[in-house]
Design brief:
This protein has helices at residues 31-42, 57-63, 94-101, 109-117, 131-144, 201-204, 207-219, 232-241, 287-302, 307-314, 343-355, 372-378, 411-420, 432-442, 460-470, and strands at residues 22-26, 46-51, 67-70, 82-85, 106-108, 121-126, 150-157, 162-165, 171-175, 190-193, 225-228, 244-247, 254-262, 265-272, 275-282, 325-330, 333-338, 362-367, 391-394, 425-428, 447-452. It is α/β, with parallel strands linked by helices. The chain has a 10-stranded mixed beta sheet with strand order 8-7-9-6-10-11-12-13-14-15, sandwiched between helices. A 6-stranded mixed beta sheet has the order 16-17-21-18-19-20, with helices on both faces.
Amino acid sequence: MSATAAPSVRPTAPLDLARPHRLHVIGAGGPGMSAVAIALAEMGHRVSGSDIREQPVLDRVRAAGVDVMIGHGEQNVQGCDAVTASPAIPADNLERRAAEASGIPFVRRAGMLASICAQAQALAVAGTHGKTTTTSMLLLILADAGLKPNFVIGGDVTDMGTGAQWTGGDWLVVEADESDGTHLELPLYGTILTNIDVDHLDLYGSFDGIVAAFDRYLAQIDGPRVLCADDEACARLAAEHGAVSYGRSAKATYRISGSEALRGTASFSLGKGDDLLGRITLPLRGEHNMLNAAGAAAMALEIGVPFETVRGALERFGGVARRFDIRGMDGGATFVDDYAHLPAEIAAALAAAKHGGDGWRRVIAVFQPNRFHRVAEMWRDYANAFVDADLVVVTEIYASGTTPIPGVSGKLIVNAVTEAHPRVRVVWLPHRDDLVTFLAREVGDGDVCVSMGCGDVASLPDEVLSARHAGTVSRA
């Protein structure tokens, strides 16, 4: 433990989920809350949920046994033992107020997730980038090893068709989110820490504040701690906490070597110390996914899963929704959707497109920035995020519930990129109709168009493909 770390104190769970409860989930259609609702229902609790609109994920929530209501109402919480919601649900929400008036405890999502974690040996994946993919990889490895893992993940796992499941097994695989400090509240057996980057400065104040929070996080865990040796801050914490490490660094416990990319795959050799464990071929693009796989492999190996099981699971990994998700092809053009929204994530996605062995003629990057305060704090950091793109298109900020700030728009990111790389073609299209029309015309034979962001940009590939199929625009 580092000199600055707090004493190791395992977090406690606010609810004892070993006995049955009547629970209500506000915002059950959100990616985080839908997973919580599914897990709670499959644990055997009587669960209801509500959301303001119907959406496809609610079909899976209902299939798990959750009674879902569209619209909020005081009657939805009557008779509950506890009510939970994501941080996005305001304190003056009708159902939260009704619960408070009736003396029904309100448990934040972090507390409910902590209560779930307390019911199994929980292995978490934390870090600024790569959490969902690495968590999904670890889940698949443990499932192939016959360990019947429970899981609660922030995105749908292609191989499982859902983001959560409670099997009743001894292990739980969970995504530990640092955006609101959830990771510090979870009672965990072990963790993977993928990287530490600048984000959520509204909560942590500075990069040093983020590192200090992860330092406290690691100090709370008594089981295996697996950290990326290629990330400077992670490597430092790994040394201070005596943790296992992975990566390309010569100092890594589990070391990547001999990496290759060919036609959308990535392969590498993995060794431990002087021993070569074997070669792994991923059905994924990108150096970042090799690191994700190495982290998942290292944790699985640390808890006793054989390497051949690890390799077999990773070689058939089906991916995660919105992670280099090829949404369609038309006229020789390929349209990809990706969740990347931070500079390092964007750079990794574009590097995967440029150097993944697919032979695309041009890489066209489309970016929808997210949250006004994030752009205000970080717009300069995007200057070098698009170096592997032949054309960069930036649209307006997706608010995600944040309040507009005078002078803060997506144009700040355009300015950062053009100032750092004046020869790169950068196009500013703040309006969605103009964006769709431009891309439908511009993307040509042999091009790949990678649209990125965590807002409603997810539907952009379908909109562009529809415009092209309608024949209303001339093509490149």
